[in-house]
């Protein structure tokens, strides 16, 4: 997998703006602020600068997909060989609940999902975006933007929609909810040039690059296969050992007891392995990329939607023609 220091891009973008004006790009002199750990007693609005310490969505999730096709192969939208793909970087509240589309002035999602801020008819409508696609903002930022864009086109891959729509969705639905991404944490000029998007995308990439799910599983002989299923417990322990905390393992597809193999079983977990969510508390700004792994059930709840029976979880091979070497 091609790896390089994407965070360097984010830092560079911040340095450029902080030299213009304090209270800009990286927040007001965040390098001088104590990088308190999100969700700790010290990381509260009023006690710290919310541009420098995450005070809103302090339970941070770095999420990944395993798709077997994109639906847009004919347009060259392919999956990276030997690698999972990036879903997003999300700010949950410290208690595990969350909000979305926190700044409708930075709404770039052409298909808001849900279509109101609360997901119910009573919420504020999220208007669909019809402007230039977000990749054009990155291109306009020159080399750092183009370098990041090339990486995103390899590793941040959507299914049944163009990649740019997934990126816009992740930014507008999630990034706008981090306290450290509030408009007041950027200069007017940085916002105008959409450097907040470049910063979010590069930090999301940085977290992703440190979580090589494919390699961690392969090291335990858990490789995509259309002929054998795996045990959820083997997947969980392989990833927990490397991440340092149990991630959430997401499955879709049929429930085990609706399949021939699971007929009569009480295990109604799903059987197609499609997602991993890694949980963190973060030191200082989420932009700093300094996460402390925490258990996926830190606020309670389940750490998987998958079936628990042995060999019940299918980690399918990609469809022919769906991958590219990266
Ligand atoms: C979780 O925390 C958020 C933010 O502090 C709060 O608004 C929400 O009511 C809390 N939810 C629950 C279920 O406690
Ligand atoms: C949101 O979607 C629902 C279901 O498609 C639709 O009935 C509703 O009118 C939409 N609301 C807005 C604000 O667009
Ligand atoms: C699957 O399991 C659930 C709960 O264990 C049960 O309620 C459901 O009836 C089962 N379905 C089938 C098709 O056996
Ligand atoms: C493996 O199975 C998945 C899921 O059914 C399918 O999409 C894919 O094309 C298969 N891959 C190969 C190489 O047969």
Automatic annotation (TrEMBL):
Provide the GO MF annotations for this entry: ribonuclease T2 activity; RNA binding
Gene3D superfamilies in the record: Ribonuclease T2-like
Q: Which domain of life is it from?
A: Eukaryota
A Pfam family of this chain: Ribonuclease_T2
SUPFAM superfamilies according to UniProt = Ribonuclease Rh-like (SSF55895)
Which GO CC annotations does the UniProt entry carry?
extracellular region
Q: Which residues form the active site?
A: 87, 170, 174
E.C. number(s) listed in UniProt: 4.6.1.19
Q: Where is the signal peptide?
A: 1-22
| GO terms for biological process, alphabetical | RNA catabolic process
Which InterPro entries did the record assign?
Ribonuclease_T2_eukaryotic (IPR033697), RNase_T2-like (IPR001568), RNase_T2-like_sf (IPR036430), RNase_T2_His_AS_1 (IPR018188), RNase_T2_His_AS_2 (IPR033130)
Instruction: Report if keyword Heme is assigned.
Output: no
Q: Tell me which UniProt keywords the record has, alphabetically.
A: Disulfide bond, Endonuclease, Hydrolase, Nuclease, Signal
What's the name of the protein? Answer: ribonuclease T2
Q: Which organism is it from?
A: Parachaetomium inaequale
Top-down, what is the taxonomic lineage of the species of origin? Eukaryota, Fungi, Dikarya, Ascomycota, Pezizomycotina
């Amino acid at each position: 997998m091609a790896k390089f220091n994407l965070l360097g891009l984010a830092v560079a973008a911040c340095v450029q703006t902080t030299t213009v004006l304090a209270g800009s790009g990286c927040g007001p002199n965040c390098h001088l602020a104590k990088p308190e750990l999100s969700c700790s007693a010290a990381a509260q609005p009023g006690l710290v600068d919310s541009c420098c310490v995450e005070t809103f969505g302090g339970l941070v999730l770095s999420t990944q997909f395993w798709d077997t096709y994109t639906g847009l192969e004919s347009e060259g939208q392919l999956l990276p060989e030997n690698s999972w793909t990036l879903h997003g970087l999300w700010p949950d509240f410290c208690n595990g609940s969350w909000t979305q589309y926190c700044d409708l002035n930075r709404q770039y999602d052409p298909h808001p999902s849900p279509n109101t801020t609360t997901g119910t008819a009573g919420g504020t409508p999220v208007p669909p975006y019809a402007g230039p696609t977000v990749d054009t903002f990155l291109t306009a930022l020159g080399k750092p933007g183009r370098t990041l864009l090339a990486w995103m086109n390899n590793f941040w891959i959507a299914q049944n929609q163009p990649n740019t729509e997934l990126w816009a969705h992740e930014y507008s639905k999630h990034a706008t909810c981090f306290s450290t991404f509030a408009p007041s944490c950027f200069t007017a000029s940085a916002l105008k040039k959409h450097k907040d998007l470049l910063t979010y995308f590069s930090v999301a990439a940085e977290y992703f690059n440190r979580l090589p799910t494919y390699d961690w599983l392969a090291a335990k002989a858990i490789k995509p296969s259309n002929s054998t299923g795996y045990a959820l417990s083997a997947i969980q322990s392989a990833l927990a050992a490397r991440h340092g905390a149990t991630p959430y393992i997401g499955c879709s597809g049929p429930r085990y007891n609706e399949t021939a193999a699971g007929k009569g079983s009480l295990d109604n977990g799903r059987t197609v392995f499609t997602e991993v969510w890694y949980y963190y508390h973060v030191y200082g700004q989420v932009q700093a990329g300094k996460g402390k792994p925490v258990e996926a059930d830190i606020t309670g709840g389940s750490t998987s939607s998958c079936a628990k029976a042995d060999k019940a979880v299918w980690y399918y091979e990609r469809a022919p023609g769906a991958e590219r070497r990266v």
